[in-house]
Amino acid sequence: MAMLSFAGMLRRSLVHRRARSVSALVAMTVSAGVATALLTLYADLDAKLHKEFRSFGANIVITAHANASLPSDVLARVQQAAGADALAAEFAYAVATTDTGTSVVVGGTDFAAVRRLDSWWQVDTWPDPALADAALLGQRAANFVGNEHAVALAYAGHSVTLRGVGRIKTGGDEDSRIYVPLAAFTAWTGVGPSVIELQVPGGAKRVEATMAQLQKELPDVQVQPVRQLVEGESRIVDRTHALMYGAVLLIALTVAVSVLATLSASVLERRRDFALMKALGGSQAQLMGMFLLEALVLALAGVAVGFVVGSAAAWAISEGNFHTATLPHLSVLPLVLLLNVAIAAIAALLPLRVLRGLQPAALLKGE
Amino acid sequence: MFFRLLMESFRRQRRRKMLAGIAILLGTTAVTAMLALATTIGDRIHKELAVYGANIVVYPKADLLDVKIGGVDVKPASGGAYLKESDLQKLRGIFWANNILGVSPELRVNQQAFPAGVGAPSVPATVVGLWFDHDFGGMKTGAAELHPSWKLEGSWPSLAGDASSWQVAVGEAFAKRLNLHVGSTFELPKDSQLANGGLVEAQVTGIVSTGDDLDSAILVPLTVAQAMANKPDAISRVEISARTKPEDAFARKDPDSLSPNDHEIWYCRPYANSIAYQIREAIPGAQAEQVRRVEQSEGNVLKRISGLMWLISAAALLAAGFAVSAAMATAILERRGEIGLMRSLGASKGAIAFLFYAETGLLAVFAGTIGYLLGSGLAAWLGARIFAGDGGAAEAVLIPVLLPVVVALALVVAIAGSTPSIRAALRMEPSAILREDG
Predict the structure, then answer these.
(1) Cα–Cα dist A185/A180, whole Å
(2) Contacts of B44 in chain A (CB under 8 A)
(3) Hey, are the CB atoms on A195 and B70 less than 8 Å from each other?
(4) A101 CB near a chain B CB, below 8 Å?
(5) How many Cβ pairs closer than 8 A exist between chain A and B?
(6) Is residue A345 included in any domain, yes or no?
(7) Do A92 and A178 lie in a common domain?
(8) Does one domain contain both A213 and A341?
(9) B354 CB contacts (<8 Å, ≥6 apart)?
């Protein structure tokens, strides 16, 4: 009799008091949804923030020792040591003379790599990669060139005329330089690359590990961090992380306590049911099981709906803010489940402790 | 009568009021804390981002081209144009003067350094004149403030001492090369023309590690460098750290091509471009540019982090709204008996609704205000804990404008949450309610 009535009572209790069940379900869904959304965002936060910091450009600079060029295969070795997600660009420099007789630093580089690495370069039109003699002129350097479209330069007796395709504006040293493709640069000056700018994603730890690795594999070059970038990134990511942690705790606590209060009030409301069941011979354990089961069913349903809603919210937030999707994290599910079940169990059991001492007869009489 | 009902209801039904009150209190606490953090996060992160250095650089317009590779002047320009140190005071008169958080002028002089000891050969070195803890109209600023990542052993040089001895700080690499320690001395020519000066003793007060080309330079107070170069009041470059608004499409417009009206709007927004424009106007012969590497990326990071905080605040608002309205609905649902009783005693629907709304409103205002105070305290505590050690972190987090916002939100949510329950209870027959609840 007990088993049969258990399922039946549960179903009836949920269906009969529909308004109350729905409001409890909504409360559980909200708590599960909020927990899912925040935990999902939190799990992805560091990766997302580190990605934003990539726009600061290179965080490691590899240079040849004085008056030497880098070995010819160094870019490939650096790329291999730093991992596939690192961005690297090599630079070669020489001081040439323009047609107006001014000394200017000319840099040879791979425009495609620089464009990815140094996203802050403001360039009107990046040169066509097929164009071997394209030149980008720094906005200050452009004032010292006779003809911006046919840039005549001389280096150690070799002169060359390059096709100026646009200007660069950075507010830094680049403004007083002229950049040309590396192949054209080496063919003209005979100077090889002397600097590799490398950007390793992730925090200070990864940068340090990569530097140690590079130093071991390439003992004859200098490997230096761009210190303010490495330090700043870690500090800001850590602090945002801590802030987010505080926010998650705060919101989860608020929702949990409010939901707990709501649910336990509605359980307390049912003291007449409780008294009736007790008067009909239900034991304390049976009654507790009954109330608990009801709460757990609601909690599970809340988790099922809340996980979907919360994942969608997390996706929307990161799409809106970071412009990259955050996929649902199944790993947050156990925590959300635990949280919701705990809330439901406490909400069901707390009022029962209050009710335990009451006499069914007194309750039913309405005293 | 109405007030007595209201007061008695609060006096007698403490437990029931507690439930709704706690829900509103917690909800407003969370929302206030999140909103207070979200509104101040921009400034806080901006302070953290200061480690990336200046976002605006000013140099003489008629300057020759820098011939620098890796921070080293390959062909030092002789002559060239300079800005005037005294002109920097004009920065305090520009429209966005209050957004200028730091100013660091510099003057570079190429010099020979003579290690202590007779007969030691001289070493070429760059002497860089900088501001150290300079009082710029009440603001302590200078090179160290603009470069928080510099690490100093010892102390920054000052102008103390007589003309026969200068205090200097030296870069790490330079110190190693000359085997210098804090307190040791070497000699510097008094003048850029060796002939008419003689040597002055330089006393090392600090060894600095900067991670860039200054590691092999000698850092001196700006006045010393000016004296050494024989160019009083000259500076070759100024770095400025300014609080800016992240750049948008409007900021990239050329101000001179805008209509007078748009130009005014552009001018009065703290974009890096507008501030640079105002600096160009204020200082004759100056060219001011945003340092795009710092400015563009900072804007990006700032936008993302504050965007995240706002979205989380919105989520907090939504969740708190749900929680509060669910609690209100339950609280009213519990009191259907009262509603039935009042109606059977002849109270009109309107009077009952008004009584309940008044109760709800009073609760919302009261709990909302306490929640506001608690939330502000929480935000201040969280902010101070997370962003500790920023100096001046204990700024007021009590944002008065949030109080009406938070209380109004609490009111709206509480009333919206209780409306369905009140309506449902009013719609039922009083006798049915009374019979059901016994």
Answers:
(1) 6
(2) 239
(3) yes
(4) no
(5) 225
(6) yes
(7) yes
(8) no
(9) B2
Considering A173, A195, A225, which residue would you say is the last residue of a domain? A225
> Are A291 and A10 within 8 A, CB to CB?
no
- Give the DSSP letter string of A52-112: HHGGG--SEEEEEPTT-PPPTTHHHHHHHHH-TT-EEEEEEEEEEEETTS-EEEEEEE-HH
pLDDT in tens, A274-298: 778 778 887 777 777 887 888 888 8
Q: Answer yes or no: do B326 and A266 touch at CB < 8 A.
A: no
A230 assigned to some structural domain: no
Average pLDDT, chain B: 82
Q: Residue B166: enclosing H or E segment and its boundaries? A: strand B165-171
How close B311 comes to chain A (CA, Å)?
A: 7
For residue B210, give the chain A residue with the closest CA: A227
Question: pTM of the entire structure?
Answer: 0.77
Domain count, chain A: 2
Rounded alpha-carbon distances, angstroms, from residue B19 to A251, A278, B102, B184, B363: 18, 27, 51, 72, 11
**What is the distance in angstroms between the Cα of B299 and the nearest Cα belonging to chain A?**
10
The CA–CA distances, whole Å, from A159 to A148, A190, A196, B210 equal: 16, 12, 26, 38
User: Which of A21-25, A153-157, B191-195 has the lowest average pLDDT?
Assistant: B191-195
For residue B171, name the pLDDT band (cuts at 50, 70, 90).
very high
Q: Closest chain A residue to B303 measured between Cα atoms?
A: A321
- Phi, psi dihedral angles at B160 (to 5 degrees): -60, 160
Dihedral angle of Cα A105, A109, A111, A115, to the nearest 10 degrees? -80
Residue B241 is which amino acid?
S
pLDDT at B392: 46
Q: Which of B13, B52, B291 to mutate to test the interface with A (most CBs of A within 10 A)?
A: B52
* Residue A182 DSSP code: H
How confident is the model over A187-207, as pLDDT tens digits?
998 888 888 999 988 888 888
Q: Which of B227, B282, B309 is nearest to B91 (CA)?
A: B282
Region of B124 on the Ramachandran plot (φ > 0 left; ψ -120 to 50 alpha; else beta) = beta
Note whether A39 and A76 are same-domain residues.
Answer: no
Residue A341 belongs to a domain? yes
Instruction: Out of A177-181, A218-222, B104-108, pick the least confident.
Output: A218-222
Mean pLDDT within B136-158: 87
Rounded Cα distance between A300 and A31, Å, is 12
Residues A19 and A142 in one domain: no
Q: Is A222 on the interface with B (CB under 8 A)?
A: no
Residues A88 and A217 grouped into a single domain: yes
Same domain, A70 and A192: yes
Cα of A197 to nearest chain B Cα, Å: 11
Identify the burial level of A180 via C-beta atoms within 10 angstroms of its C-beta, where 0-12 means exposed, 13-18 middle and 19 or more buried: buried
Instruction: Report yes or no: A254 at the B interface, CB cutoff 8 Å.
Output: yes
Residue A349 is assigned to a structural domain of this protein: yes
- Please check whether residues A298 and A276 belong to one and the same domain: yes
Q: Does residue A214 share a domain with residue A97?
A: yes
The boundaries of the domain holding residue A334 are 2-52+235-365
| A chain contacts of residue B34, beta-carbon cutoff 8 Å | 247, 250-251
CA distance B42 to B32: 17
Among residues A225, A258, A293, the one where a domain terminates is A225
- Could you give the ipTM of this predicted complex? 0.77
d(CA A201, CA A207): 8
